[in-house]
Amino acid sequence: MLAFIVRRLGLLGLTLLGISLLVFGILQLLPGDAATTILGAWQDRGGQTHEYLRHALGLDRPWYEQYLGWLWGVLQGDLGRSLAMDAPITPILFERLGYSLRLAIPALLLAVSISLVLGVLAATRPNGFVDHAITVITLGGVSVPAFVSGAVLILIFAAWLGWFPSSSSLATGEGFLFWAKMLALPVATLTIEALAHITRITRSSMIEVLKTPYVRTARLKGMPRRVVLFKHALRNALLPTVTVIAFNIGWMLGGVVVVEQVFSYPGLGSLVLYAIEQRDIPLLQASMFFVAAGYCLANLLADITYALLDPRIRY
Amino acid sequence: MSSQPSTVDDPRSGVEASAALRVKPPRRVPLTLLVGGGIVALFVILAVVGPLVTPYPFDEFHFQSKLAGPSGEFWLGTDRYGRDIFSRVIAGAQITVTMAATGTLIGVLAGVIIGLISGYLGGWTDEGLMRVTDIAMSFPSLLLALLVVAVLGANAVNAVISIGIVFTPRVARVVRSATLGLRHVQFVEAAEVRGESSRYVIFREILPNVWPPIIVETCIRMSYAVLLVVSLSYLGLGAQPPAPDWGLMISKERAFLATAPWVVLAPAAAIVALVIGVNLLGDGMREWLSARKTADE
To answer: Rounded to a whole number, what is the distance in Å from the CA of A142 to chain B's nearest CA?
Structure first.
């Protein structure tokens, strides 16, 4: 087990290296560089200031030197300096990560627990009424983009009922109740999205598992239905589900861009968008790398969970 | 080995008897495939003739009736400039359908070629190509699309290219594993023994036999493509105003959600209907093709 984890960690390191190269490489293709962005409207005629700035920022060095310099900083926990905010990036990223996690963790917990129950319910009687109802609802769920379900939730719960705020300005207020009220709608939007995906997978893998001989044996030897369902079947059906859950973690870490945009929520996703709008290359580079790293880490956790759940699996 | 006799009402019986024996008549077309196919066909028709049949030009201002509710004059109401929402939603089908289809096509084409080459040649080629796809796939799809659009610039064409880039490694994976399964079957080895070139073996022997997974994957990709297109437009990184793109309409008009819900609900309904249609089509296609496969064996 330990060797397995160590090997996976090594692989993770290599993948992260690849990601950093990809992000760095792609952003080199951007027209204009950080110096152009800083100077903005103040481009001088002779280009002397521009040259000077490029030199000061180290942009006139060959790309591999810049890359290695950046990588060395990353290894020391220094992700560079944001041009648009004129501040070091690392603390900003962790602050935004905190906000994003406050959104993603409750949503993930809710989605996983509800969808496991729904998936099992649907699978116990395939093609029954409950199954059809759940299938239709989850098909709807995977077909509705987050900004649509978010808008509908805002319309009902913010505009008509007035229970929750429609956007998340963090400036006003503290305390649990404040946070709960503010997070309710974004968390609900995220939950709906993840819920549908996880339920669909749980259902189909449960149906497969319930067909296997060992489940029938357990049933025939007179075991209570509940024990067979949750102890024998669900444990095996969880395997593909774990992958989907991991996928959802990554999606929540980075792909929450849309949900954060809908609710003007200051998480990692909106930071990425801000970096794109401002053409803030160092910030974009850092936040993209950060999110991709989080996604890989989630996948690693999923692989390890996978191996823990199923002793047969060793890569 | 039971060969399915061609049914009496099979239009191909007689004339193309040999073809009918090779290509089995479809077993039973699943309902999901019919419904999904119908919905998608409707949107494709709208995409072709949409701009011709709208009651008003999609960008015509009616300043007398800004944010008007649904009425006989404006079936789905108007937006803040008094533009007819119904006309905009109908005209928008063209943008969304074209963008999603083109993006999918680019991704599937590139993915099929890479997957075939990687799976057939194996060795270092395979190793290298697969490591690159690994890295590309370690980004959440929307994020990779954002990265590409950030570099290329925010417009509809670049959004389509970014979708193609996002899909390529995912399709390549599927095609590669299907190709691996055919690597050592007799007709492939026979072609190799005949001294056929790799290109011949890949495109004439293997490709015709990996169509089913490619078709299913294409359908799945289509539904993601629609979601990506509207999401990118919503974020302001896809089609640009005044294009009647559904995602763009929702993002530009959402400030009026409380007072004039139709400005958001109409394009939202169009998006959901299209994605449900594509999803049903994909589910049905998978069911149908796997049923045909078991019937063949």
So the answer is: 8
A122 touches chain B (CB under 8 A): no
| Chain B residues with CB-CB distance to A291 below 8 A | 139-140, 143
CA distances in angstroms from B110 to A117, B136, B144, B166, listed in the order given: 40, 14, 17, 11
Residue B250: phi and psi, rounded to 5, are -65, -40
User: What is the C-alpha to C-alpha distance for residues A123 and A242, in angstroms, rounded to an integer?
Assistant: 17
Mutate to test the interface with B, among A14, A148, A192, A280 (most CBs of B within 10 A): A148
Q: What is the pLDDT of residues B130-185, one digit of tens each?
A: 888 888 887 888 888 888 888 888 888 989 999 999 999 989 988 998 888 888 88
Tokens found for residue B72: 């006989």
User: What is the sign, positive or negative, of the torsion defined by CA atoms of B272, B277, B278, B279?
Assistant: positive
Beta bridge partners of B78: B84
Q: Is A255 part of the contact surface with chain B (CB cutoff 8 Å)?
A: yes
Does the distance separating the beta carbons of B135 and A22 come in below 8 Å?
A: yes
**Nearest of B65, B106, B115, B124 to residue B225 by alpha carbon:** B106
Of B136, B235, B251, the CB nearest to A257: B235
Contact A254 B142 (CB under 8 A): yes
Find where tokens 């590139």 sit.
B110
The H or E element that residue A144 is part of is none
Chain centroid to CA B194: how far? 38
CB contact under 8 A, A272 and B146: yes
Structure tokens at A249: 């973690």
Helix (H) or strand (E) holding B52: helix B31-53
Residues of A in contact with B254 (CB under 8 A): 151, 262
Distance CA(B91)–CA(B240), nearest Å, equals 15
Residue B62 three-state SS: coil
Residue with tokens 């220094």: A78
Which of A149, A271, A276 to probe by mutation at the B interface, max B CB count within 10 Å? A276
Burial class from Cβ neighbours inside 10 Å (0-12, 13-18, 19+) for residue B294 reads exposed
Paired tokens of A135: 């299938």
pLDDT per position as a tens digit, A1-17: 778 788 888 888 888 88
How much is the pTM?
0.81
C-alpha distance from residue A3 to each of A7, A10, A12, B42 (Å): 6, 11, 14, 55
| Backbone CA torsion sign across A33, A39, A43, A47 | negative
CB contact under 8 A, A139 and B280: yes
Pair A295, B140: CB distance under 8 Å: yes
